[in-house]
Write a structure and sequence with these properties.
The chain has 14 helices and 34 strands. It is α+β, with helices and mostly antiparallel strands. The strands form eight sheets. It has an eight-stranded parallel beta barrel with strand order 4-5-6-7-8-9-10-11, surrounded by five helices. The longest helix has 18 residues. It is globular, with a radius of gyration of 26 Å.
């Protein structure tokens, strides 16, 4: 009987083992000879990180082929829990979330897989991949033996681990190693029972043969709480440092076995308000050559960064959220384009293994579609009837996103001024409880912005009974460190002068659904608000949050369209943008460093009009400036900006 690879995989998915398909396949650690053994032979992997959750499915093959043609024999990827279980027991593995198809594609292309299923992944991803619905229990201790946390982890792993079992190398698939947790030695809990529970859980679902590993910073202090008996300990470190010393830290936990750098940093992450991170190619190739010369295994983090579409970016503390682009100054750009660093690294790899023959896929073409006029549709306050599907909720004190079962986006809080404020009076969040940015209006007039860790008080004026609206934006949950239990919204009370504000009406906003269903456009063009004006004059160039819309047609007669493009926001301030209902992400050119957003071709249409919807939170361009967006073929993610206060997680090595 002649089975194809696909047929064999289908049988494995049904739980049927095929001895003839897996005979002789093994992947183990050889402690005697300090290496991995693949099918009984010494093996060294040269891998690169790609996050399928940051790359549109239509481009998975293109990016993986470019990795393969660089000489890699493996890729590394995370499985973000919150990407697949948006609500307890509600699972999504379709489309861009089709994990099984991604693993199968790796198999088909001849790439092995180093899998990092968490449950915590960090990865500059919202809440480090943990679902925010865990925070319904306010006292939960994440990444610990807390029974509520363990119960949720067990259920999730009981779903996802059986899905990946058929793809283990010994079962005929591409997965050679599986990580348990992630950089646990950097977390405050240091709960060995938690790690032991995870290891036992992984073994129960995946079997005794799979090579489990941990990853921690290249320091004994990290490995002390991150390493675990019978789980192979690896380290991560970037270029420019002492490679020998870094691996000596691994030898502290693993006296014998293969040397492994699970995250060799080819670039670094960005934050809004800080310069774009760049690591020089010469520094990367020098350290990579040293690693390979030692016979060590290495994973290039990132090989391609990709994009934090929608609201998926994370943040660090003090609170610095990451931008929409996760370009990472990697070997392939955010859009998958080949770089000088790509070819330089490939030349290093050529010194140690044969590069595959064949044609290297080129960078995808980009097209500048030009400018599109944008018109004001409605303010957020005017749109509550179509944005708040669940309706208003009354509460004495503010409720958080988490209490109202909202994971991402925006929430509007409404109350009235309890007293006359003829003179400027502080409206404050004394406990720094605005998570993360609040746009304040009084009687429909913009009054100012409160921002976590940066602006906890503004001065307002107004009459007793004036309507006070506070639109709060979740800018992304903390993904690293002890503050990952990151509640959103107004997480503590606001005060007006010495008075605590009470009697709130809270609107949970389903903006993505309203945009996708065309409700904002159907509501019609903007009508001026007739509300009584406040005594508070709006700050310069600040207006209340509002939606804007525009359309464009891709021209006829031009072959090979649509193509990728970038959207530029001349003279816009900050907001969110959708094209044809697809949430591209946040824009914030007034703070930078990212100015343009990547628009993958698959969200555009050549058969119908393309609709752009923008939620501008601060101020749209106004006369004499044109109110337009521009589609360009050139990205700007490294605009020169004024440096801000540094955050706590710096590069692992000085360059």
């Amino acid at each position: 009987m002649d089975f194809t690879k696909t047929q064999a995989m289908l049988l494995l998915l049904c739980g049927i083992t095929l001895p003839f398909a897996t005979a002789g396949r093994s992947f183990t650690v050889d402690y005697k000879n300090d290496c991995f053994l693949k099918d009984g032979e010494p093996f060294r992997y040269i891998s690169g990180s790609i996050h399928y959750n940051r790359v549109p499915r239509v481009y998975w093959k293109d990016r993986l082929l470019k990795m393969y043609m660089a000489g890699l024999n493996a890729i590394q990827t995370y499985i973000p829990w919150n990407f697949h279980e948006p609500a307890p027991g509600l699972y999504d593995f379709k489309g861009d979330r089709d994990l099984v198809s991604f693993l199968q594609l790796c198999q088909d292309l001849g790439l092995l897989v180093i899998l990092r299923p968490g449950p915590y992944i960090c990865g500059e991803w919202d809440m480090g991949g943990l679902p925010s619905w865990l925070l319904k229990n306010k006292d939960i201790v994440l990444r610990s033996s807390d029974p509520d946390y363990i119960r949720a982890v067990d259920k999730w792993m009981g779903k996802v681990l059986p899905m990946i079992k058929p793809f283990l190398y010994q079962n005929g698939g591409p997965i050679i190693t599986v990580q348990v947790e992630n950089e646990y030695g950097s977390y405050f809990a240091c709960d060995y029972n938690y790690l032991r529970h995870l290891a036992k859980l992984f073994r129960s679902h995946l079997g005794e043969q799979v090579v489990l590993f941990t990853t921690d910073g290249a320091g004994k202090s990290f490995l002390k709480c991150g390493a675990l008996e019978d789980v192979y300990a690896t380290v991560d470190f970037g270029p420019g440092g002492n490679v020998t010393a870094a691996f000596e830290a691994q030898r502290y936990a693993e006296p014998h076995g293969p040397l492994v750098n699970s995250e060799f940093y080819t670039g670094w992450l960005d934050h809004w308000g800080k310069p774009h991170s760049v690591i020089r190619t010469a520094v990367v190739v020098k350290s990579l050559n040293e690693i390979l010369e030692m016979g060590a295994n290495v994973n290039l983090y990132m090989f391609i960064g990709g994009t934090n579409f929608a609201y998926w970016n994370g943040a660090n503390t003090p609170y610095f959220p990451q931008p929409t682009s996760y370009d990472y100054d990697a070997l392939l750009t955010e859009a998958g384009d080949l770089t000088e660093k790509y070819f330089a690294v490939r030349d290093v790899i050529k010194m140690y293994k044969k590069i595959p023959d064949g044609i290297l896929p080129p960078s995808t073409p980009k097209f500048a579609y030009g400018t599109v006029e944008m018109k004001k549709l409605r303010t957020v306050a005017e749109s509550l009837d179509i944005l708040s599907f669940s309706g208003p909720v009354k509460s004495l004190y503010p409720l958080t996103f988490d209490e109202l079962n909202q994971a991402f986006g925006f929430m509007l809080y409404r109350t009235t001024l309890p007293v006359d404020c003829p003179r400027p009076t502080p409206l404050s969040s004394p406990l720094n409880g605005v998570h993360d940015r609040a746009y304040v209006t009084i009687d429909g007039v913009a009054a100012g912005i409160l921002e976590r860790d940066k602006a906890i008080s503004i001065n307002v004026t107004g009459r007793a009974g004036s309507s006070l609206d506070v639109l709060v934006e979740n800018m992304g949950r903390v993904n690293f460190g002890k503050h990952i239990n990151d509640f959103k919204g107004l997480v503590s009370n606001l005060t007006l002068g010495a008075d605590t504000l009470t009697n709130w009406v809270v609107y949970s906003l389903s903006i993505d659904e309203a945009v996708r269903d065309g409700l904002i456009w159907e509501a019609g063009a903007h009508q001026d608000n007739d509300a009584t004006p406040s005594l508070t004059p709006p700050p310069a160039a600040l207006s209340q949050p509002a939606f804007y819309g525009g359309s464009f047609q891709i021209p006829d007669g031009i072959p090979d369209l649509p193509q990728d493009t970038y959207i530029h926001f001349p003279n816009w301030r900050k907001g969110q943008v959708w094209i044809n209902g697809f949430n591209l992400g946040r824009f914030w050119p007034s703070r930078g460093p990212q100015v343009t957003l990547f628009v993958p071709a698959h969200v555009l249409s050549t058969n119908s009009v393309n609709n752009i919807t923008i939620l501008e939170l601060e101020a749209a361009p106004s006369p004499p400036l044109p109110c337009v967006v521009e589609f360009t073929d050139t990205p700007i993610i490294n605009a020169t900006i004024r440096p801000m206060v540094p955050y706590t997680r710096e590069r692992p090595n000085l360059l």
